[in-house]
Amino acid sequence: MPKFSPAAIRTVALTGHGGSGKTTLAEALLANAGAINSPGSVDKGTTVCDFDPLEKQYQHSLNAAVAHLQHRDTRVHLVDTPGLQANMPIFEAAGVAFQSSGFFHAAVTSKGTFSAKLLNAGKSYSMSGHFSATGASSNSVVRKGLSPLTVLLQLNLAGEILTGQVSDGVWMAE
Question: Which residue of 51, 83, 90, 151 shows the fewest CB atoms closer than 10 Å?
Answer without folding.
Answer: 51
